[in-house]
Design brief:
296 residues; alpha/beta; 47% helix
Length: 296
């Protein structure tokens, strides 16, 4: 197959537990992709898909949420991050819940991670083919998960980078530009759940005063996000994309830290994917993708 089926993963912080459930069911049924692109929590979920570590995402979401190093004001004071970024992107993958760097590196799947330049506020896409897996996990995935105001940006090759969801929250256009005629999307908001304009925050302007382009991007992010949803709706009607997303509005925010709620969300993603799997297989058949072309 000529790499024409992509997997696009939205971020959403702890709402990524829903994505983890979706991907675990797909992995259980041996569904693979030639190309995966994600932002923030979506990119982290995608990395585990490529390393072929089914349920690692689930273990991370459920095991570390009760760890004192995971989230809290103490982290903000100690390292300038509300989430324990050193803990999440160094200790967890190297010691606590080991990441399979070797399998990730040997994978033939094209993997891209979107981050946002603090200076230009434009999306930059890091390709796993051009960097070693430790760099991707410890620097790029961390950058793509660094939310302004509660996280420090990550320095990479002369620029500071923030959460990829700022510049490209659902990187479908990038996947299409890279040649994927058909795409599977995993979103963390229900259909029709759009962003609305928010009042400009003086606090935001003050703390990010050295990055005026970033402030402007954050202020207008709702416009581009909603345009992307319009594109998804159109392509879904045309049969060009298949979308997994919550069938009703989620009750939790991206900063959730309640293990019981996160477990429910993971199970919901898994169950909803199971319920739609027949439709998904029919869609694959409809686009004339032979089963052996998409299996690992």
């Amino acid at each position: 197959m000529d790499k024409k089926l992509g997997l696009v993963l939205e971020g959403g912080g702890m709402r990524g537990a829903y994505t983890a459930g979706v991907l675990d069911y797909l992995m259980k049924n041996n569904i693979g992709f030639d190309y995966i692109i994600g932002v923030s929590a979506g990119a982290n979920n995608g990395a585990n898909y490529i390393s072929n570590q089914r349920e690692r995402n689930k273990e991370i979401f459920l095991k570390i949420v009760d760890d004192d190093r995971f989230v809290g004001i103490k982290n903000l004071i100690k390292e300038g991050n509300y989430f324990g970024m050193d803990f999440l992107f160094r200790e967890v993958p190297d010691q606590i819940i080991p990441f399979d760097y070797d399998t990730f590196e040997k994978s033939s799947i094209k993997f891209k991670v979107a981050v946002t330049s603090s200076n230009t506020a434009e999306a930059v896409y890091f390709d796993s083919d051009n960097h070693n897996p430790h760099f991707i996990v410890k620097k790029v995935l961390r950058a793509s998960s660094s939310i302004p105001l509660i996280s420090k940006p990550v320095y990479i090759n002369g620029d500071y980078y923030y959460d990829g969801g700022i510049a490209d929250p659902i990187p479908l256009k990038k996947s299409m530009k890279d040649g994927n005629q058909y795409n599977v999307l995993v979103l963390t908001k229900n259909k029709g759940n759009r962003l609305s304009r928010k009042r400009s925050s003086v606090f935001l302007k003050l703390l990010l005063k050295e990055y005026p382009a970033l402030v402007k991007k954050l202020r207008n992010r709702y416009i581009e996000y909603n345009k992307c949803l319009d594109l998804i709706d159109r392509l879904e009607n045309e049969g060009k994309v298949f979308v997994f997303r919550p069938n009703k509005k989620l009750w939790m925010t991206g900063l959730e830290s309640n293990q019981k709620d996160i477990t429910k969300l993971y199970n919901r993603g898994y169950k909803e994917t199971k319920n739609r799997f027949t439709d998904f297989k029919e869609w694959l058949d409809h686009i004339n993708m032979k089963s052996q072309s998409i299996k690992r």
